[in-house]
Design brief:
globular, disordered N terminus, single chain, binds alpha-L-arabinofuranose, 6-stranded mixed beta sheet, about 525 residues, alpha/beta
């Protein structure tokens, strides 16, 4: 990690905020507005769409003959919502599915595409209606870069090489001509290529040293100018995996990291998406904050070979993972999305900003209907989740320069659980606007935040706040919207400081002109 990386210092004694005597959290913090921090790459706000449940079929793709309004087969409501989100990059086709995917099954006339069984996600019949052309068209439609996760587990380097050639070659090679025959004259750009997925598990059950050699071989045949090659990386705090990948990195530009937030930390009983108690609320935030230590642990291993942070750590899967919605197919990973998810998302954005030198991309799992989704659909109905709103509120951070924030941050205490109640991030964009994100995870107490912002004193402020009545307030598919951002007016200049009055359990995003 370079010295420019951002750390929030917890200065002075930490003040516990639970108990009846206090009703308000007091935070004092300063932003170094002149610092030259790392750029927050827009790709940190990336997405992930896998052939899993209704994540793609039904959620994004309904086919051109569907009664559901669509643009060439893509749901119009979903496409329009994603366009507003300015999705920087989409990872596809998996996940675990990537290592059983045969790309040739997903090209040519849709009616004659083979049907395969999706071994990892309920053995459902995958009809391959959303294939290579559909993915690249979709990415173009929503204005996103492309991240192909290629098959190492049951594929070959040759098949992967052919896929890249089919998609991106401007020549008259037989594969490029096949693409043209299938309806696409112009080559597409493959921006990111993931080599394998969870190779320690569903991708092949390999040891780090075994996979590292394979990744090197694949990279040898896939490398092209302008393409970022990502070696399938570690889970959680498995730093030795990253160490091994770094030793044998060959032409890799990055490694990935997957980390999911489970309220209980127990895969057998992860915790409910709604109707949870305050203990699970608090535990969720403690667990999601662990990602920051993990990023730093992997970063240390990468620093050993790459102190200038040229190689990226891509957090290619992150987000909440709860017990599946009762009554749904558990293999479809469907879960409700509440105010808690929005605050988890914002907390993770802050973590990525603070570590933006090394974290070159992150992809929330997943885009539609699966895990911590932006969007839920059911037949023709659609709902924008609280997570969607968090992503939209933080759009101004895409491409801005991260700034250090130091201050004293009182704790939120629940039983044995302790964590900072308020987390703050700041960044300056190319036109000099200062953007500030604040998260107050305390479920009952408002926060009074005093910010020192050198050279911005007195400038005009606009902002938004996201909060709701209950910990598990949500936006239902039947049209009840309990969690939507509204404009925020409780930030004012007093004695040269910006004072922000935040409600309990809220996100505030401010722009100072
Ligand atoms: O996102 C769901 C699954 O979680 C992915 O397929 C896999 O990579 C991870 O275990």
């Amino acid at each position: 990690m370079r010295r420019t990386a951002i750390h929030v210092a917890f200065l002075s004694a930490l003040i516990a905020t639970s108990g009846p005597a206090r009703s308000e959290i007091r935070v004092a913090a300063a932003v170094n507005t002149q610092a030259k921090g790392p750029r927050i790459r827009p790709e940190i706000y990336g997405q992930f769409a896998e052939h899993l449940g209704t994540g793609i079929d039904g959620g994004i793709w309904v086919g051109p003959d569907s009664a559901i309004p669509n643009i060439r087969g893509y749901r119009r409501d979903v496409v329009e919502a994603l366009q507003l989100l300015k999705v920087p990059v989409v990872r596809w086709p998996g996940g675990c599915f990537a290592d059983i995917y045969r790309w040739r099954d997903g090209i040519g006339p849709r009616a004659s595409r083979p049907v395969m069984l999706n071994k990892w996600w309920g053995n459902t019949e995958e009809k391959n209606q959303f294939g290579t052309h559909e993915f690249f068209d979709f990415a173009e439609l929503i204005g996103a870069k492309t991240y192909l996760n290629i098959n190492v587990g049951t594929g070959t380097a040759g098949e992967a090489r052919d896929w890249i050639e089919y998609v991106s070659s401007p020549t008259n090679s037989t594969l490029a001509q096949l693409r043209r025959a299938n309806g696409r004259e112009k080559p597409w750009k493959v921006d990111y290529v993931g080599i394998g997925n969870e190779m320690w598990g569903c991708g092949g059950n390999l040891k780090a040293a075994e996979f590292s050699a394979q990744a090197r071989l694949y990279a040898n045949f896939l490398k092209e100018p302008g393409m970022v090659l990502i070696g399938g990386g570690a889970t959680g705090d498995d730093y030795s995996w990253t160490e091994e990948m770094m030793k044998g990195r060959g032409q890799l530009d990055a490694v990935s990291l997957h980390y999911y937030t489970l309220p209980t930390g127990d895969w057998a009983k992860k915790g409910a998406a709604i109707g949870f108690d305050e203990g699970e609320w608090a535990a969720t935030f403690v667990r999601t904050r662990k990602l920051e230590d993990m990023i730093r642990g992997h970063d240390q291993k990468m620093d050993a070979v790459d102190p200038d942070e040229k190689l990226g750590l891509m957090v290619a899967e992150w987000g909440t993972w709860y017990d599946a919605t009762p009554g749904t197919n558990a293999a479809f990973l469907q879960q409700e999305n509440t105010l808690r998810d929005a605050l988890v998302a914002a907390t993770n954005f802050h973590i990525f900003h603070r570590n933006a030198g090394r974290v070159h991309m992150a992809n929330i799992a997943q885009m539609v209907n699966v895990l911590q989704a932006m969007i839920l659909t059911e037949g023709p109905k659609m709902a924008l989740t609280p997570t969607y709103h968090a992503f939209r509120m933080y759009q101004p951070f895409q491409g801005a320069t991260a700034l250090p924030v130091v201050g004293s941050f009182p704790e939120y205490v629940f039983g044995k659980i302790r964590l900072p109640a308020v987390d703050i991030t700041a960044a300056k964009d190319a036109s000099g606007l200062l953007h500030i994100g604040l998260v107050n995870v305390h479920p009952k107490e408002s926060a009074e935040v005093e910010l020192t912002l050198p050279s911005y004193v007195g400038r005009s402020i606009e902002g938004q706040v996201l909060t709701a009545r209950r910990l598990d307030s949500r936006n239902t598919i039947s049209g009840v919207a309990e969690v939507t951002p509204v404009s925020f007016s409780k930030a004012r200049w007093t004695a040269g400081k910006l004072r922000v009055s935040m409600p309990a359990k809220s996100i505030v995003r401010l722009t100072v002109r």
